[in-house]
Amino acid sequence: MRIRILTLFPEMFEGPFKASIVGRAAERGLVEITVHNVRDYAHDRHRTVDDTPYGGGPGMVMMAQPLFEAVEDLVARELSQAGERPKVILTTPQGRLLDQGMVREFTSHKALIIVCGHYEGVDERFIKSCVDHEVSIGDYVLTGGELPAMVLVDALARLVPGVLGDAASATRESFGPGLDGLLQGPVYTRPAEFRGMKPPDVLFSGDHAKVTEWRRKTAVDRTGQRRPDLLKGWPST
Ligand code: 4H6
Question: Which CATH architecture has domain 169-231?
Fold first, then answer.
């Protein structure tokens, strides 16, 4: 999978994508991530990418022209390289709330362009003509779309075959949040007793079927307590 990120702050991606599982996946050639500076597509000598909002009001708006030409360039490069049009995603508080189902859908594309919004927002004409999906990572406001882009890239990368160890992916497919729609139940590791607290006996029973059943039950219980919304339309009671 190829991911292109369009941002005013390319430096923000240097740390997270180097020192992480995502960085290792890129090194191993499992994902290709490139970061592009919107400013490189400005026309004037000040490299202007923002302007005051029509109708007045505070702050600045990202201009359509640099974003439009940046996406045009990245799409053209992808078309000549792979012949398949990449999907363009804008991270914005106005977007559809990201969930695991959407992440899974995005992984069906060979290439994605993620545009990070800034200032008070992005000229609507760019969104209308170039953006396929507006995505929000949650109902809170950030100074820019860079952190949401990193969240999305991380969620995508861990679904690419080989990025997680085989053992890790196998277990997380069965009881990870969103994957079968349940929250994960409690987990424990050594020592068997810590400050007087012991894990449930069933985890020491060696009975794999019983352990699986306990994990399913604690996952359902916890989901009912913390996120009853996730159980709506869920099989059985
Ligand atoms: C586009 C439009 C995403 C991007 C406006 C982005 C939260 C999320 C942004 C803005 C984001 C999220 C600029 C509006 C700052 C508020 C960047 N915030 N904003 N929940 N901010 O995914 O002012």
Answer: Orthogonal Bundle (1.10)
Of all protein residues, whose CA lies closest to atom 10 belonging to ligand 1?
Answer: 121
Residues of the chain with CATH 3.40.1280.10: 2-159
Selection from 173, 181, 163 nearest residue 219 by Cα: 181
Q: What pTM, to 2 d.p., does this model score?
A: 0.94
Gap from CA of 115 to ligand 1 centroid (Å)? 11
Q: Which atom of ligand 1 is nearest to the CA of 136?
A: 22
Question: What confidence category does residue 165 fall into, taking pLDDT thresholds of 50, 70 and 90?
Answer: confident
* Of 103, 119, 134, 141, best ligand 1 pocket probe by most atoms within 8 Å of the beta carbon: 141
Angle (CA) 90-96-97 rounded to 5° is 110
Per-residue pLDDT tens for 88-134? 999 999 999 999 999 999 999 999 999 999 989 999 999 999 999 99
Domain 2-159 has CATH 3.40.50.11710: no
Distance CA(124)–CA(137), nearest Å, equals 20
